């Protein structure tokens, strides 16, 4: 049974979700991250406010996050493609393996506990924050992408982990591409293409996986809550602004700020796991 929520709490909740949607859209366009890193912790807390049981709370958070960020990723992909900064051949090469990783991620998420999903966020969120704190845009392993099966294997892992974290995949795709010589802006644009490949099967998978699950919040299709998805249009509004800014400034300061945010999220999830 979901807890009742007062009018004041509802207004505060909607305001919080609206700000998160605007910020997620901007970050999607600016960094190619899809905004999931912002929305996962916000939705996790929001679903806690309305009394979603802990055993399905993280599942609903991940599925809903993919539903919210999907239109934003599509809009960012379109904007980058118009500017000619998407390597479609790389998207085609990685795409099938991304889908296989997404399918594997959905199967694992279906059987995983809420605790296990939070531990996944802690482990990979820590790695992401460390990369943003320490990484540099000019770090490079080679001047071209690796031959099969290495890139394909990496694509499968990206699809798997992204699905289990509720993110668009670009958080891992951008570093991978830049390490192998792709210019940062082109890597960000290409990563939005990867995000579109993750979003569609990811959303479908979370709907099917959660179908008929008890204790879901109202307006849910499986683990995707349509009520929270209403903030998606706000994210779509700010995605082109992020793309515009991405073509004009250095993003190092914002990367550091985002690293601090991710570290805070990791600490919050770790606290829920250890208490």
From TrEMBL:
It is a multi-pass membrane protein. Coiled coil: none annotated. It is found in: Cell membrane; Membrane. InterPro entries: TM_pro_TauE-like (IPR002781). The chain crosses the membrane at residues 12-44, 56-74, 94-112, 119-134, 154-177, 184-208, 220-242, 254-274. It comes from the Bacteria. Keywords: Cell membrane, Membrane, Transmembrane, Transmembrane helix. Signal peptide: none annotated. One of its GO terms (cellular component) is plasma membrane. Belongs to the 4-toluene sulfonate uptake permease (TSUP) (TC 2.A.102) family. This is Probable membrane transporter protein. It comes from Hyphomicrobium facile.
